[in-house]
Amino acid sequence: MTRKNFVAGCLAIAAAALGAGSAAAQDTIKIGMVMQMTGPNAAGGREISAAAKLYVAQHGDSVAGKKIELIFRDDASIPDNAKRLAQELIINDKVSLLAAGITPSAMAMAPISTEAKVPTVVTISGTSVVTERSPYYVRTSFTLGQQSGIIADWAIKNGSRKAVAVLSDWAPGAEAGKVFESNFTKGGGQVLETLKVPLANPDFAPFLQRAADMHPDTLFVFVPAGQAGTFARQFAERGLDKSGIKLIGPGDITDDDDLPTTGDTLLGVVTAGIYSAAHPSALNKEFVAAYQKATGHRANFLAVSGYDGMHLIYEALKKTGGKTDADAVIAAMKGMSWESPRGPISIDPNTRDIVQNVYIRKVEKKDGEPWAVEFATFEAVKDPLKEAAAK
Ligand code: PHB
């Protein structure tokens, strides 16, 4: 072998190796799931992970000729961890997409998504501003405003005039309270007081006592996923379920993951929510049965948000032919609409936020368990805070 041929041969081998390496890398699309598996929001992380895995199990782990690999990381509900984990997933694990969870973690990850140009699906956060923090953020969860304005209007229509608000003390709670109060006062009602309950290890009892002492006709409550069971127990311990005060709120206070544990306490409670496991569609029945089988739990509003997050990623990758370039993926996601287990949903092409039905639901017993049964529908509801800002 001449020296020239030897060098050419080495180069050819190196090129082949490089080619094989990059082909292998390109054949797998990694999705970094930065979730809350521990800490005060651990219920949500468990639900998103289970739903995302269920979606992959049902739809296969390849899309547009690429293998899909989910990589889960626990940020322990701490925003600095979320930011570091997002960075590590991009640099070390070479993920092409990210999924974000609760508001503080999603806020912390936004600059990373922007700088590294990584499309990110927001699967839990319900705070309006989150989608504005990165041009590569797209939300499949909800906003608290979407639900809180509608329940305020419903309460006014049904005779409520004096309300006390009990809110989990962080961004989504503040937003629920703000939109509720705005609509409730516009309708001629009055919010007597707003009480803020710490997010971690909450003791609702003293706040509920203070609220009851003010003799409102209505109690508007926001607690995040995972706290509805504790809240319901303390509500009943104060005798508030028999006080005649109407309990209302966004769907979170009748979380389907907790409802089966609440006995008769929440019967009759009316909420405005984006998802009920009792939603009467064939697709939802199938989803609830599959989720129950996979996890032993009833599917809830976060499970459906995680499931839809995966659907959005799969369908966008089909449209881009498997390309993960951020601008192409986001363009594919904008305006996408589909039938979710929660009903028809779409991604607003202008805001990258979710547009969805909001249902008025009443807690009723069916087959011995409480369910949030839908009885009225507000169609294609956008985030009211973005709508107001656009005017
Ligand atoms: C949020 O992170 O904004 C959030 C989390 C749990 C909820 C609602 C909102 O139930």
Would you kindly provide a written description of the structure presented here, covering whatever features stand out?
By secondary structure, this protein is an alpha/beta fold. The protein is built from twelve helices and 15 strands. It has helices at residues 3-27, 42-59, 79-91, 103-116, 144-157, 171-186, 205-213, 228-237, 282-295, 301-320, 326-333, 384-390, and strands at 28-35, 62-63, 66-74, 97-100, 120-122, 137-139, 162-168, 190-197, 218-222, 246-250, 270-273, 337-340, 343-347, 354-366, 369-381. Strands 7, 8, 9, 10, 11, 12, 13, 14 and 15 form a nine-stranded mixed sheet that branches. The chain has a six-stranded mixed sheet with strand order 2-3-1-4-5-6, sandwiched between helices. Helix 2 packs across helix 10, helix 3 packs parallel to helix 4 and helix 5 (144-157) runs parallel beside helix 6 (171-186). The N and C termini lie far apart (76 Å). The model is unreliable at 6-23 (pLDDT under 50). P-hydroxybenzoic acid (PHB) binds at residues 44, 102-103, 124-127, 172, 224-225, 252.
Which terms summarize this structure?
391 residues; alpha/beta; nine-stranded mixed beta sheet; six-stranded mixed beta sheet; 43% helix; globular; binds P-hydroxybenzoic acid
Q: Could you tell me how far the N terminus lies from the C terminus, measured between alpha carbons in angstroms? A: 76 Å
Structural class: alpha/beta
- The number of helical runs is 12
Strand content is 15-25%
Number of extended strands = 15
The ligands bound in this entry are: P-hydroxybenzoic acid
Average predicted confidence as pLDDT: 94
**Quaternary structure classification:** single chain
Shape category: globular
Rg, alpha carbons: 23 Å
The largest β sheet comes out as: 9 strands, mixed
Helical fraction: 40-55%
Which residues sit in consecutive blocks of at least 5 with pLDDT less than 50?
6-23
Order of helices and strands: HEHEEHEHEEHEHEHEHEEHHHEEEEH
